[in-house]
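Subject: complex prediction, re-run

Hi both,

The earlier run crashed halfway through, so I resubmitted it with identical inputs.
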Amino acid sequence: MSDEEESFFGTKSDTLAEEIDDLKKKETSQLELVWKRFKRNKLALLGAGIILSLIFVAIFAPFIAPYDPLQTHPDRIREDPSREHLLGTDQVGRDTLSRLIFGTRIALFIGLLIVAVSGSIGVTLGLIAGTYGGWVDEIIMRTVDTFLSFPVLIFALAISVALGTGLYPVIIATGLIIWTEFARVTRGEVLSIKKETYIESAMAIGEKKGNIILRYFLPNILPSIVVVATIQMPAALLYSATLNFLGIGAQPPVPSWGQMVRRGSEFMQFYPYLALFASLAIVITVLGFNFIGDGLRDALDPVRGGS
Amino acid sequence: MASNVGSPLLEIKDLELEFITEEGIVKALDGINITVKKGEIHGLIGETGCGKSVTSLATLGLLDNNARIRGGEILYRGINLLKLDENTLRKKIRGNEISMIFQNPSTSLNPVYNIGNQVRESILLYQTKDKMEASRLVLSELDRVKLPDPEDISTKYPHELSGGMKQRVMIAMMLACKSNLLIADEPTTALDVSIQAQFLKVLEELKESEDLSILYITHDMAVVSEICDVVTVMYGGQIAETAPVDVLFKNPSHPYAKGLIYSVPGVMQSIEDFETIPGTVPRLINPPTGCRFHPRCEVCR
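This time it finished cleanly. Structure:
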């Protein structure tokens, strides 16, 4: 009985202490609050760790990679992992680890570029659709629906075939699929804050529409866009890796992960390492971005609901 | 009180307005007449949902898409605002001539900019194009609404200020527009009583110093008796009564106005002595015919 009471008072004083903490927190900025919540999420921290290491690896690839990723060794093809070649070698004797390390550059570059391009298109169209409504909204959102109804891979393949091989057709093809998510989320967010009093106030002092979009809508929906970007990043990576696997995009001897999986899958039965390690690189990167995305979404959510 | 009133500034004449909803047509305003004269504080009072806010939004042309104006006119200095297009309204009327303070100060400010930045925005719109000059003016605008330590406040974000401070920032922003008519839509509803008193004092002083006319929307009889010169009582989208404030409180002629005044709790009064108005506000989708108050009216029964 007395134990129960003690624990009751224990929790009570705990919440009071938390409330006092919260009061103190109010003096810190919103950004710090978001960081505090993000930190509590172990998976999100893991994701951030993964991605930061990948960025580090991508930047310092020449210093980290033990071998030249393009140097072939006809006498040492398809070797199992060993002390000399930690992850083995590929079908022409190139060091797999070095190729994976340089592949990081391509993966991140493609991912960032796709998200940046499709993000700016999607956000712009979403802002216009949400702000103006009516037939403008109708046209933009039906276009989004149209794009969503395309079979993704076939659509991307068609575009890539039309534009030829290389990195840019992959970026365009993937960007054309991913922008729809940005447009939908942006439009939804604009519609939800359109009814906020500060938008009415802005109208009441005679702000221009353009100014309302840039000063009021855009900065207030930015957190949601960041979340969409981190969630769309792995999707972009997966699409580009898939296209790469199908032979579109970076061409040999450029060390791209999708292409390494493709090469490796040809000898999967008696030499699984190449495909395995390249796939693992993709999986880890995608997971890393997904963890960050989920963490950010959760960290930003209470702020949006509370203020 | 009524000595300094001048020529009519805003005249709302026979305004009829409907909302088209899924349930049917809501007759939100049914022949509204309100005249706000220069230099007066005009109280607009009534229960929730009687059309007070709709009237003010109609004046600024900020109604939702499903609103239809069926008749009447809104004359501002003789110009019919209902005839103006969106662009003219934005450039010449909103902010420039008429500005508005909203009910909830905690959501009326853009959360992502600091106070100085937001006040500067309306200064840049209406006073000067020079950014340095505008930044200096921010401090004097904040000082004018009696905010302590303007320099400190201008660097703060909305979530760091109290409700009362935010509401004063809102007034500062609206005053920076240099408009002639201020529409205050229940500006003290979200404030503490003591803060409310400060706020009303600031408003009254500004009325004198800036020669500001104010349309003060509220459902608080105490506030009305405190600051208003003339009061219009609204009920269910109709005007029940318009009278100078002292006349209204001494000798209300409409039974609804009477009911409103008697239902204000006095500090020394016990709850049994309280007079309430029986019934509830009618739904305007199918309003009572004739005087919309009649189903609840003692005189009529």
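The first strand of chain B starts at residue 8 and ends at 20.

- K.
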